[in-house]
């Protein structure tokens, strides 16, 4: 069949001499400047397991090690496929070993899900979802559909770039981009309607009511859900020209806003492929570790309500988030004509349901008397235990309500206190995983609990140290502090 077979080329008895002959032949036929293929064979200890390289192959010559490697394909493949999972993942705790998927396999899996599950869905709200929307104080069906059109147009613009007054969303530079953007808008809207219906069913079941007006009239909740749907569509199509957090900029959201919906999105979309769940998990880690602590995050608007003692420092540093732009503002920024899109939902409803109380001045938010945080952050179990982000059920309408509104579940705490409590719990669980992994790598596992307790104390008592910082900085400082104290005690 045109193939050349060299008998006994890799036999143990003559491998060394054959290798030298091939080396001489290669040196006489190769051209200057060509890629030296010998570099892939000689001194390639990476494909040999650490256990074997330190015991069996220490005193072997290079050709001998190459022969042993080529003669043991099972060990080589096993070592290459078995990779440790992300140590910082709140889902797996950093201790589970998985087989790494190739980019092609991942893309095929997510594309199959998008075509098989999402593309077949209706383009408009289903009859069940329409029933929830019409059961509110006023029928919100038209508001929901109009909002989807406006927000997705901001993310996936279908007008040529010359019609845009800003730099939001994708830049449609030619006619071929417009059909692509239209298709992505359709996929994102279908996914949004599907998850919204699942959330409505769950909320109705847990609250025993069909009137979900506080939640379904909340502008921030809908935008977070749309942004999450659009981000998954972008991730599925590997859209590198609009990488996260571009979707936040297009929708007027902050990192703290999006962190409230990711867990619920994954919980209510059971068909979501593992690759997209990992993508959302990765985004959530970015939000928790640094992005939610950046200047302009809505986290600070909740902190001034939940912890009034922090208000002066937040104001001094100018960390408060600006008011979320209304749908009319987004339309105006994109330079739409009135006939291009239907009228937006009323500004009054969006302002009333806005989490940050956009109708109020940020300064008034800070100087008015507030209740202190009622419940302290719960003690996270020792670092050896399994950490997940699964918590007891809380109604989403409390999560997305205005910070100054009382918790709808009961009690005297404000909704801001509930949101901060949940956020801090996630921070502690993520930090516990990273602290455990760091201490294991440094071979000081016995100090894991000490480092974690210091980190927790800083988050609880010295929260200002987190402002505009990455949590890894605080973890390293906590570890350094423990090491210094132990060194002093030892001396």
Automatic annotation (TrEMBL):
<dbReference type="InterPro" id="IPR036915">
    <property type="entry name" value="Cyclin-like_sf"/>
</dbReference>
<dbReference type="Pfam" id="PF01857">
    <property type="entry name" value="RB_B"/>
</dbReference>
<dbReference type="Pfam" id="PF01858">
    <property type="entry name" value="RB_A"/>
</dbReference>
<comment type="function">
    <text>Regulator of biological processes that recruits a histone deacetylase to control gene transcription. May play a role in the entry into mitosis, negatively regulating the cell proliferation. Formation of stable complexes with geminiviridae replication-associated proteins may create a cellular environment which favors viral DNA replication.</text>
</comment>
<protein>
    <recommendedName>
        <fullName>Retinoblastoma-associated protein A-box domain-containing protein</fullName>
    </recommendedName>
</protein>
<keyword id="KW-0805">Transcription regulation</keyword>
<keyword id="KW-0804">Transcription</keyword>
<dbReference type="GO" id="GO:0030154">
    <property type="term" value="P:cell differentiation"/>
</dbReference>
<feature type="domain" description="Retinoblastoma-associated protein A-box">
    <location>
        <begin position="102"/>
        <end position="303"/>
    </location>
</feature>
<keyword id="KW-0678">Repressor</keyword>
<comment type="similarity">
    <text>Belongs to the retinoblastoma protein (RB) family.</text>
</comment>
<keyword id="KW-0539">Nucleus</keyword>
<dbReference type="InterPro" id="IPR002720">
    <property type="entry name" value="RB_A"/>
</dbReference>
<dbReference type="GO" id="GO:0005634">
    <property type="term" value="C:nucleus"/>
</dbReference>
<keyword id="KW-0131">Cell cycle</keyword>
<dbReference type="GO" id="GO:0006357">
    <property type="term" value="P:regulation of transcription by RNA polymerase II"/>
</dbReference>
<dbReference type="GO" id="GO:0032875">
    <property type="term" value="P:regulation of DNA endoreduplication"/>
</dbReference>
<dbReference type="GO" id="GO:0000785">
    <property type="term" value="C:chromatin"/>
</dbReference>
<feature type="region of interest" description="Disordered">
    <location>
        <begin position="341"/>
        <end position="365"/>
    </location>
</feature>
<dbReference type="InterPro" id="IPR002719">
    <property type="entry name" value="RB_B"/>
</dbReference>
<dbReference type="GO" id="GO:0000977">
    <property type="term" value="F:RNA polymerase II transcription regulatory region sequence-specific DNA binding"/>
</dbReference>
<dbReference type="GO" id="GO:0005667">
    <property type="term" value="C:transcription regulator complex"/>
</dbReference>
<dbReference type="InterPro" id="IPR028309">
    <property type="entry name" value="RB_fam"/>
</dbReference>
<dbReference type="GO" id="GO:2000134">
    <property type="term" value="P:negative regulation of G1/S transition of mitotic cell cycle"/>
</dbReference>
<feature type="compositionally biased region" description="Basic and acidic residues">
    <location>
        <begin position="349"/>
        <end position="365"/>
    </location>
</feature>
């Amino acid at each position: 069949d045109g193939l050349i077979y060299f008998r006994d080329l890799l036999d143990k008895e003559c491998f060394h001499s054959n290798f030298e002959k091939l080396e001489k032949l290669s040196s006489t036929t190769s051209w200057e400047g060509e890629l030296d293929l010998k570099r892939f064979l000689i001194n390639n200890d990476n494909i040999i397991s650490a256990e074997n390289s330190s015991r069996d192959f220490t005193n072997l010559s290079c050709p001998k090690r190459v022969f042993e490697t080529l003669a043991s394909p099972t060990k080589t493949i096993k070592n290459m496929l078995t990779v440790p999972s992300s140590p910082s993942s709140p889902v797996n705790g950093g201790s589970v070993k998985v087989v790494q998927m190739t980019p092609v396999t991942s893309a095929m899996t997510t594309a199959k899900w998008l075509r098989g599950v999402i593309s077949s869905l209706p383009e408009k709200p289903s009859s069940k979802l329409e029933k929830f929307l019409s059961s509110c104080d006023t029928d919100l069906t038209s508001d929901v559909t109009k909002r989807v059109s406006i927000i997705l147009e901001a993310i996936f613009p279908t007008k040529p770039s010359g019609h845009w007054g800003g730099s939001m969303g994708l830049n449609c530079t030619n006619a071929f981009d417009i059909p692509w953007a239209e298709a992505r808008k359709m996929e994102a809207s279908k996914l949004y309607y599907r998850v919204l219906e699942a959330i409505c069913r769950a909320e109705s079941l847990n609250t025993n009511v069909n009137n979900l007006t506080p939640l379904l009239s909340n502008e921030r909740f809908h935008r977070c859900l749309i942004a999450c749907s659009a981000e998954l569509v972008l991730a599925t199509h590997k859209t590198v020209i609009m990488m996260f957090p571009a979707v936040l900029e297009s929708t007027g959201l902050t990192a703290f806003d999006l962190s409230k919906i990711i867990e619920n999105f994954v919980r209510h979309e059971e068909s979501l492929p593992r690759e997209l769940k990992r993508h959302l998990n990765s985004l959530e880690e970015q939000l928790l570790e640094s992005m939610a602590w950046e200047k302009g995050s809505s986290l600070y608007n909740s902190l001034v309500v939940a912890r009034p003692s922090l208000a002066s420092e937040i104001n001094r540093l100018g960390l408060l988030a600006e008011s979320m732009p209304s749908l009319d503002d987004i339309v105006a920024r994109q330079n739409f004509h009135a006939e291009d899109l239907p009228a937006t939902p009323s500004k009054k409803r969006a302002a009333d349901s806005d989490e940050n109380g956009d109708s109020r001045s940020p300064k008034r938010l800070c100087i008015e008397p507030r209740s202190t945080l009622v419940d302290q952050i719960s003690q996270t179990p020792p670092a050896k235990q399994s950490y997940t982000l699964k918590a007891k059920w809380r109604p989403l309408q409390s999560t997305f309500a205005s910070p100054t509104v009382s918790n709808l579940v009961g009690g005297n705490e404000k909704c801001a206190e509930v949101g901060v409590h949940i956020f801090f719990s996630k921070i502690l669980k993520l930090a516990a995983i990273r602290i455990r992994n760091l201490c294991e790598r440094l071979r000081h596992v016995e100090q894991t609990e000490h480092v974690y307790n210091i980190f927790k104390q800083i988050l609880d008592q010295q929260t200002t140290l987190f402002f505009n910082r990455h949590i890894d900085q605080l973890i390293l400082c906590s570890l350094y502090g423990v090491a210094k104290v132990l060194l002093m005690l030892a001396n």
